Amino acid sequence: MTLLERLKIETRDAHDRIETAMDLDRRISSREAYRDLLIRFHGFHAAWESEAAERAPDRAFFQSRCKTRLLAKDLEVLGLKSDDIMGLPQCRPLMPLPAPEAVLGSMYVVEGSTLGGAIIAREVENRLGLTAETGCAYFRSYGRNVAAMWKSFGAVLLEASSPEADDLIVGAAQDTFTVMHDWLCETP
Q: Any coiled-coil ranges, and where (predicted)?
């Protein structure tokens, strides 16, 4: 079994749990509800990107996948000012990221959510009329390159795979799902 297969199997329950708890229909039912959802995503990404960047095995690769700036762009389009965005609450406590392998495990969750983001983007566009230019840049982050970006991430993950690293990678992915669930699904 490859590391990617193991991750999919061992995080399936956590993935299903967060997907159910998100209540996406409610959270994209209006511009205000959608803005509040983006605020929660911003709080996660701003904290996570800051923490994970310090231990990322390849900083340029990691930085090319950061999404806080896209969330800030969307929030500005939806009426928040830069100062307001900078003052938004951030997700704490985060999951432990003691090593580069843990960052990769955590990235598995974040990059995987980008695949789901393409589906969410279509719903946001249909319900709210928002595009990547008018408030849906985060969910459209990689545009038409979403599959290629996932494939390149998978290659990096498989390259890092080893008997010593795999448990750490899987554990970090599970921890990330838990933190993300608790942060995104709590009532602010």
A: none
